[in-house]
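tool=predict chain=A
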Amino acid sequence: QIGSGDVYMVPNTRAHQVIPSWVAFTPNGVLVGDDARDQDITNPENTVYDMKRFIGRRWSDSVAEEARLHPFRLVDNNGTPAVAPTVAPYDSQLFSPQQIGSFILKELKKSAEDHIGGIVERVVLAVPVDFDDDQIEATKEAAVLAGMKVAHVVTEPTAAAMAYGLHESAKLQEILVYDMGGGTLDVSLLACASGVFSVLAVDGDNYLGGEDVNHVMMAHFAKLMLEKDGYDAYISKQSLQQLRDDMEAAKRELSEAPSTVIRFQSGSYSFISELTREAFEAICEPLFTRLLDPVKSALAKGRRRPQDIDSIVLVGGSTRIPFVREQIQRFFEDRLELYLKVPPEQAVAIGAGIQAAIVGHYWPLPTAAIENWDVIKAMRSGQPLGGDEEDEDEEVPPPA
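tool=predict ok
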């Protein structure tokens, strides 16, 4: 209900409140979300995901190297990455990451319109705090291609903090946002008082997300299969995608249970193995030893100590991994309770929804939440924090 102060996550046709950012090209059309992911085994070369890594970037050696880790074709299109489907009628076209993103946003727009029985004309976008201007503009372009005007852009850590109501307090507080999603690990140190957010420091690891965990698990079990049975799991893209899906499922199950059973089947070959949570943590040790590095770095950049932090917000599905939570709590000596009431996959969307209500003058708050974009831009460029310039286009005034 508009004006109630509640955020409602609109479900899709499958009653899912969160959909995967996947797009698939098929002879019968474009599939989005769960429908796209469900057919990835049979159509890996035309099933696209992980576009957040590529949107707004120029083609480079590092982009080319990242592209090789994916089963779909990513090519250099006049200096920018583009998806090149192999299935008719799309095999003669190239699709930018913005266009792929627009397919996902169109799906979300349709779900919202079906739910409210009206037209969605404007959108609030949440972007990583370390996105540069090109990446932000490319994300905005995706929204425009989806038929929406961009009402506001908020950074993901600020949105996550808003999901917990941390913008409502007049007291100055310092917040650490630990965002471990599918692609990257991002750590942000925020200061907030009376609804105004400033970014004190950010750090991260572009190769420490859920997909990186999957890749380490895939390499481990592919080696076991080769040594035990002489089977090469990398022999085909279908086999590789099946292995990835099995690793993803096992990882999720181990966040809830102490053990799981991996049942890999590709063609006539099958492989069954029990995996305990302890073994999973040992397999992922090369990654997990880096979990706290961005936290330490962000604190150092912000000239803060662990005891200076008032709140810790977890964002992203990978923060469900028990070992991740244990490491964070241990680092802060169990002094702070982790904010867990909001599902980590939904925190950014909920915060963006609150910001949208503020922009639309629907939110029953005495003050709006505003980000200090001068501080954010100075932080990105490595300049000293502070300054007198104002960016009125980026700030949102309090509702009347």
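The mean pLDDT is 88. The two ends are 20 Å apart (CA to CA).
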